[in-house]
Amino acid sequence: MEGKIKYEYTTKMWRYDSSGGWYFVSLPKTLSKEIRDNLKWQEEGWGRIKAFAQIGKLVWETAIWFDTKMDTYILPIKSEIRKKTDLKINQKIDMNIWI
Known about the structure:
Elongation Factor Tu (Ef-tu), domain 3
């Protein structure tokens, strides 16, 4: 991703407890602080920053949102991505994101 900043981290997928139950991965708090300190100017409504994400060989266009309760950015993992990457809740995931 030319011109973008790449971040690499390991995380686990979790499910939000609500009807509809979206799936997310959280970025590490230290990484979230670095992103917020340097790139907050790119945030749109609700703390949203456009990004590209990668799990394995799969790369897709997405966004991260800043969750004030968790004090970190979260990235939604859509059904299509979960199926293509065979992700399970609490499974360790090596991720790359570009902002």
